[in-house]
Structure formats: C-alpha cells, structure tokens
Amino acid sequence: MSDNFDVKLEKKSYLPEYSYRDNSWIGEYEPAYQRFLDDPERFWSEIAHELEWMQPWDNVMEWEHPYAKWFTNAKLNITCNCLDRHVNGDKRNKVALMWRGEDELHERVLTYRQLHAQVMRFANALKGLGVRKGDAVCLYMPFVPEHVVAILACARIGAVHSIVYGGFGADALNSRIRDANAKVVITADVSYRRGKTIMLKSIVDEAVTNASCVEKVVVLKRTNLNIELMPEKEVDFYEIMANADPVCEPEVMDAEDPLFILYTSGTTGKPKGIVHTCGGYMVGTYYTTKYVFDMKDSDVHWCTADPGWITGHSYIVYGPLSTGATVLISETVPDYPDPGIWWKTVEDIGVTIFYTAPTSIRMFMKYGEEWPKKYNLDSLRILGSVGEPLNPEAFEWYYRKIGKARCPIIDTWWQTETGMHMLATLVGDKMKPGFTGKPIPGVIADVVDKDGNPCAPGIGGLLVIKAPWPSMMRTIHNDDERYRQYWNTVGNYYTAGDLAVKDEDGYIMVIGRSDDVIIVAGHNLGTAEVESALVSQEAVAEAAVIGKPDPVKGQSVKAFVTLCVGYKPSEALKNDLIYNVRMSLGPIAMPSEIEFVDSLPKTRSGKIMRRVLKAKDMGLDPGDISTLEE
Ligand code: ATP
Ligand code: MG
Q: In the UniProt record, does the keyword ATP-binding occur (predicted)?
C-alpha cells in the first residue's frame, strides 16, 4: 500500500450527548479507560469476579506471542452464569426468552427456570447419544427456542458447538460438518421463511451422505408432516429429551477449553473456522453486553441476527443471558409480510434495546418512513448497529425515523475473531455519524501504516489491536498458520483486515476492507467513503464500488447502484450521481462507470461482497461463494 491515504473528515452534525447512562458500574469512558491502562489485569479481574467460577484463576493472562491464555487454570461452565446463577438468584421466574414466529399467532416464552430445565434435559439427551466433552456438534436449525436450548446444552456438557446458519445449502453445510468433524447434527424438519416452508431435514440428508464423522442426527419436528426417521441414526428431539434425566450437572471446563467453532461470513474469501474458548469469551461478552448496551434488569433486548453468526452467539445467547436479560428472538425477515413487521414487533413486545445491521436499515430506507410511522416505537431506548460501516445517511435515518432523535445510536465494530465489541460509541458519548467510535475500555486499538507506525488523524491506514483481550480467537480450526498471520502481518499487532481513519478525538471510522482497497493514481481509496457519498443521494438505496484496471490511473472506480422505490435508471441520473461524488470527495474518487442493478451480491449475513462484483465484471473466478445469498 502506498502511503498517501487522506480521508476527508467533515466536521459536521455531531449529535447531542446523552446523559442518562447509569454510571454506577464501569463508569464514564475516560476514567474507565485510564483505569484499564493503569492496570489491565485488575480491570479484567474485577469484571470476571462478578461471574461464578468453579475454581479461581492463577493468572489473569499469559501471553506468548501470538498465543494468549486468559484466566489460567480457572474452572467454569458458561451455562452456570447464563442459567443457574439466575435461577438460584432473583431471576428464577424472569422471562429469559421470548420467541416470535412469522406472525403473532406463533409466540412462546421461557423463563430462566424453564430454559434451565430444558437445557439440562437436552444436555443429558446428548450424553445419551454418546456426546462427550470435546466432541463437535453441528447445529443447523431454524431460529426457535430449541435452537438456544441446543446451544446451551452443548456448552453444559463441554461439547464444542459449530452452528451453521439455516439458510446455507447442502454443500456449505457438508464442508462445515467435515471441517469440524461433527459427531452429531441437530436440525429440524422444516424452517419458515417469507411464508415458505423449507425442508431443512432433506438438506441435512444430502449434507451427511459423505460425512462419515456423523453418528447421529437429532430432528426437531415442528410440523405434522411426520417425516420418517432412519432407525439407529436419526432421533426425535423431544423423544430423547423425554427419556433423559432432568438434572445435568455442568461439566467442569478449563477456561481455555474450546467453547465453539464458528465460520466467518466469507465476505473477503474462504470462511475461516474461528475457535473461541470458555473463560475469556464469557467475560468479554458479559462485559460488553452490560457496558456497551448499558443493559438494565428491565430491558428487553432484540438483536435481529441469527445464531449462525457471531453476533447471534455473543449478543443473543451468551452475553445477554449471562447478564440475566430478557431476550427476544424472532424467525421473521425484515420485509415479510410487509416492511412494518419489525416495528410492529417492537411495539407489541416493548423492545428497549434494538441491535441490527446497516443492510436492514438501508432496506427500510428504501421502503420509506411510512412503515415505521405506523407503530409506536416509544419503548426503544438504545439502537445498535454492526456488520458494515453505517453510512452517515443511514445513521441519520435510524436516529431520526426509528429513534425519534431520542435514542443513542451505538455503532459497534468487531469480528467473528474478536468475539466481542472492540470499538463503539458508548451511551452518553458524543455521536459522530460515519464513525464507529473509540476503542472500549479493555481494548487498545489504533490505525497504523504498513510498518506499524500510528497514522496521524485524517490519514487512513490499517486497523490493528495492540494487546490481547479475553474473547480473542485462540486459533483457526485446522489452520493455525492462518491464525498466526493475524498477529504477524504488521509489527506484533493483531491486524483486522479493515482500513480505518482516526480523527482528532480518537474516533475511528472504518473505510473499507484491505482486500477491497482501490488505488487511483497512486492514491488509496477505501470503498466506504465513495459508497456513502452515493448513498447520501436521495435516489440511491445501496452502492458498492470496485477498482478496475486503468491504463492511466492504475485503477478506476466502478460503482454498482440500487435505487430507492420510485426512481428509474437513466443517463441523467448517472451523470448526477457522478457529479455529486466529485463535488463531495474530489475527482480522485469520481466513478468512471456506474451500473444500475436490482440487487447487490451479499453474504447471507447481509454484507456486500465486492469481490464477487469485481470477479464478475472482469470475467474472473469469484473464489469461494458458498456464503453468497441466493
Ligand atoms: P470474512 O472474514 O470471511 O471475509 P467477514 O469479515 O465479513 O468475513 P465477520 O467476522 O462476520 O466476517 O465480519 C467482521 C467484519 O465486518 C469486520 O472486519 C468489518 O469489516 C465489518 N464490520 C463489522 N462491524 C462493523 C462496523 N460497525 N463498522 C464497519 N464495519 C464493520
Ligand atoms: Mg473478516
């Protein structure tokens, strides 16, 4: 990468600060961050002491580059903190999970006591199938309460879960089952999506045909289709549960024992099997749920992700349940039966913390504000975002149309690899549209050049994390060399693979992926800036830009654009869009080509896959597209 990488940082429209954060816990940002810097081990150990351990640790952290051990020799079971602690404390009959299917006729509620009881029974049922500590179990399920039960049941007995999003096809499932060497697969007869019934079990049938590691398949029957189960190999979810003992003592886990394997989204390449361990992950997700979301006992938390993504693992299951929150889970998509369904859900249930991805927000913008306007969104208190840069335009819309200029927008930057939030704008802090925020206390992040020197404010570079944190990945399954690369690319830092820029206040803006960087006339361009400049125009719903080889400039910018409802492609509009980008970012960033498209290629978790656009445009092989949405 060449060194000139200036980013235009506009000092505009910083939004009001909020003062209602409860500061009794970690406290205000600055002093909390300072306390962390003064004594990191003490900072983490104080948080860890709020949780239950079977045996305390010898050392908070041991580091031998690039391998970290956190809470060494401590013993625990994460389910004790997510369940037993509440059942034995004051939350026995508090609602743990609320589930809503595709309509309000399908709702279920589980208290902490009920969830605990089901988890213990299903944990014993898994033991009955021969699952032991350290065995891998693959979950390929619809988003129903049993999915959460199955996740926690694995953790209860020390089985390593590997969740595969229920929208993947047989090949993607097969390769993940084999990579993780799963002994058991847990699935359901069907899932529902946009009113359609998807035969999940037949996808599993296909996926396990040449996966000899799989000994048993557990099938949750949701319908009266009564599909035949193959004797010996296939068993019924509730039948094995009914025959299991009700009490399952938690397996004693070492802090460094693996908790799960999870494959990344595959936005920039072949998905990597990220390995997380029990102790550090528990502390990191507990801390960030409580601090970043400012979680209170009265909150109703709705994270719209699926458990198949890290966001679902950390901020639907482990984080919120470890804090004793009430968690809403829902099988809906944002625009079926209509684009008001999520807002209706917020109103009906009284959601207070809402956490979603920019792709959904941009989709809502495309349909217009009349949809959220139909519902009362007064219960909302905090609005979160994760997954991609939240462009200023989408930020403003989310802030005004959903939050009614009342709720802080908490943008959170993190990765499957990091396990927990790393950068965020905290409740009570100044919000800057376009910027994610600052490293949270506990995290040392920076923007550096390729030699590891910090970049000055306004100069873009590589986003790195300079010190280990509890919930960092420990390795990549079957590819430790790839793990080491994360810590050996720039100095001794962890390189995230993202490009970013800092401002004078230390706020960080993610400007793209290092794999997607565009170099025009020796000048580096992140994709996010140009895309945001396009999306800021009324007609544009979403945009993706790529670099194309150019004989004079090295590369030129090509933009793919989808339009909002009510706009039609035309030459005049093209020229307008190009002109406006030129005006806001200068000639370097000006697209030389614009193509109107109906939709952009995305991962199933909703991220734009620029490498697919680029390959297609240049007639090249797109590489691994197993995570491409249909
Ligand atoms: P792969 O690593 O396989 O290419 P992926 O990086 O999309 O896939 P995830 O771990 O799901 O897999 O996503 C993490 C990435 O998502 C980050 O590296 C970053 O690029 C992007 N991201 C997440 N949150 C934010 C955010 N708040 N702002 C900007 N980008 C974000
Ligand atoms: Mg990644």
A: yes
